[in-house]
Amino acid sequence: MTKIESNKNSWLKNNPNYDKKWIAKNRKRKSFTSHKSNAKWRGIEFNFTLETWIEFWGDDYEDRGGKKDQLCCARIGDTGPYEADNCCIVTNRENLAMADRGWKTKYTNEESV
């Protein structure tokens, strides 16, 4: 940790207005905005609001990430918009495997075309 980061962190922890819930929600807001921006860049509709996105992730939020055994938000059949009714939480490894085998999984009984 650099000296600047150390000073910043000590200021936060020693600040009487330091609010862990506010910090956590803003961390989630940043992740939500990144997910929404990536979907837009890929031309995929994104229908989550911040509140529905946080609710969708629930306790799994901390396990998100880009490594193969971390969790991601996968669209069922890899089609349609990002929204609660069209997404499931899987590992990146599962998401890649589902894309390779046409999405016939425990999440849907139908095989995508």
- Overall strand count: 2
Compressed to H and E, one letter per element, the order equals HHHEEH
Q: Helical segment tally?
A: 4
Helix content: 40-55%
Structural class: mainly alpha
How would the global form be characterised? Answer: globular
Radius of gyration: 17 Å
Strand order across the biggest sheet? 1-2
Spans with pLDDT under 50 lasting ≥5 residues? none
Largest sheet: 2 strands, antiparallel
Span of the ends, CA to CA = 49 Å
Rounded mean pLDDT is 82
Strand content: 5-15%
Question: How would you describe this protein?
Answer:
The mean pLDDT is 82. The protein has a domain at 27-100. The protein has helices at residues 3-14, 20-41, 50-57, 92-100; strands spanning 71-75, 87-91. The protein is mainly alpha-helical and 113 residues long. The relative contact order is 0.11. It has a two-stranded antiparallel ribbon. 45% of the residues lie in helices and 9% in strands.
How would you concisely characterize the structure shown here?
The protein is mainly α and 113 residues long. The chain has four helices and two strands. The longest helix has 22 residues, at 20-41.
Chain-wise SSE layout:
Elements: H1 3-14, H2 20-41, H3 50-57, E1 71-75, E2 87-91, H4 92-100
Antiparallel strand pairs: 1-2
Identify the notable features of this structure and list them briefly:
single chain, 113 residues, mainly alpha, 4 helices, 2 strands, 9% strand
